[in-house]
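Propose amino acids for all 274 sites.
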């Protein structure tokens, strides 16, 4: 299930790149809308899942996740897909930093080393040519990873009282109106072809969430986390087949360092991901 979710993430990224005539903000709105429509039957059948111990916190989490997704979507349109995907893997590293800063969790020597190594891997990818100039699109991907890490810090607290289904339902319900606000500012009606791709993307996003949620109900996060890295070769293959993009050596080296750092950082205190 985690492997399938990783491949769906690769398809999601490719669809963003294919939607060249649709603004990333509009993509974000339709992705949330079709994702909500996909899970609406579950909400209708089980309205009790909307009972929550939190109120405004759901909106905060939804806004953070939306901000992260929009950063990724813009980065996907401007930078090589494999480079952006590799930067996304920094989220668990940033989560460890946030847990230390805001939740008082301790950082042992190995975790400090993992954090430093993770950022070193990111720098290798962000400046692959060694020209001395950082690529703005990849810095945007880094910002998206930071927002996703903040969203997971909020999730870590909320999961103590709310079920996974409740968290998923409220996230989609609140993301739709939040995503509509920036989308209106740049609105252009998608073509029928683009509309079809947006539907596929929404379904992929909802299926991804369902697969990950189901997988985490069967196994520990520390066991499942490495499977998410299947996303990188999946994205690299899709990017090559559809766009002729070839991931450079620096991308694979940086991604390998981030991968190893993530395993070390999540070893003793695995993060829950929804």
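Proposal:
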């Amino acid at each position: 299930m985690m492997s399938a979710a990783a491949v769906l993430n690769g398809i999601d990224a490719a669809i963003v790149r294919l939607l060249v005539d649709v603004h990333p903000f509009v993509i974000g709105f339709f992705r949330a809308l079709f994702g909500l429509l996909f899970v609406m039957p579950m909400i209708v059948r089980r309205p009790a899942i909307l009972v929550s111990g939190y109120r405004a916190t759901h909106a905060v989490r939804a806004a953070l996740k939306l901000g992260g997704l929009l950063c990724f979507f813009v980065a996907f349109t401007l930078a090589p897909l494999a480079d952006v995907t590799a930067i996304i893997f920094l989220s668990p590293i940033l989560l460890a930093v946030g847990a230390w800063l805001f939740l008082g969790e301790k950082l042992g020597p190995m975790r400090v080393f993992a954090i430093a190594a993770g950022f070193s891997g990111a720098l290798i990818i962000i400046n692959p040519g060694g020209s001395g100039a950082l690529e703005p699109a990849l810095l945007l991907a880094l910002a998206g990873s930071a927002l996703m890490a903040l969203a997971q810090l909020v999730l870590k607290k909320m999961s103590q009282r709310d079920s996974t289904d409740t968290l998923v339902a409220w996230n989609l319900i609140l993301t739709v109106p939040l995503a509509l606000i920036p989308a209106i500012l740049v609105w252009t009606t998608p073509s029928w072809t683009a509309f079809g791709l947006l539907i596929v993307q929404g379904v992929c996003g909802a299926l991804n969430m369902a697969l990950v949620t189901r997988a985490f109900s069967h196994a520990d996060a520390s066991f499942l986390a490495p499977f998410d890295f299947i996303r990188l070769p999946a994205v690299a293959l899709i990017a090559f087949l559809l766009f002729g993009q070839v991931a450079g050596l620096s991308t694979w080296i940086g991604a390998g360092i981030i991968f190893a750092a993530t395993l070390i950082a999540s070893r003793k205190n695995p993060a829950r991901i929804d």
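The two ends are 14 Å apart (CA to CA). The longest helix spans residues 192-216.
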